[in-house]
């Protein structure tokens, strides 16, 4: 029994220790703080708002060492059960303070995309991962975050990409942004044999 528990916990522990450190904290700790702003209830708490803002600022100063971690966060799978438990706990007065600090899987993906965008061209290597995540994603809000990140990272010229947002579908716009990234950085999208 003890060996089984250790085997289950070992990958998470190893991942924790492999994370880069920035300003004395692991990237995962900065990421958790950045995600605090994803929950609207946390924005009213001055301490949580300050922690989230500090994390966003820190990611804006980080170098490319943060990219592998953020790419892994793009791949956070949805868990209907855990999402439902977090959302339900947020509505119970005694559990709400703790539940507000829990991060929904969809929020992790959305925040990871936004943080990659904050790294701007330093995160060019994440473009194929963002495109792949976009193609697998079912949540339109998260897809929108991916497209925004791709546009920022690939330095898409606004005139070329904006088109007529009133008449063009989101899917057409997204495909145009992705094509631009693939044309601007073709070496990143080469499939290895």
Please sum up the structure shown:
This protein is mainly alpha-helical and 193 residues long.
Tag the structure with descriptive keywords.
193 residues; mainly alpha; two-stranded antiparallel sheet; 11 helices; 64% helix; globular; disordered N terminus
Order of the strands making up the biggest sheet: 1-2
Helical fraction equals 55-70%
Largest sheet: 2 strands, antiparallel
Radius of gyration over C-alpha positions, nearest whole angstrom: 18 Å
Describe this structure in words.
This protein has one domain. 64% of the residues lie in helices and 2% in strands. The chain contains eleven helices and two strands, in the order H-E-E-H-H-H-H-H-H-H-H-H-H. It has helices at 2-18, 27-35, 46-61, 67-74, 80-90, 96-99, 105-118, 127-136, 140-153, 158-162, 170-184, and strands at 21-22, 25-26. The longest helix is centred in the N-terminal third of the chain and has 17 residues, at 2-18.
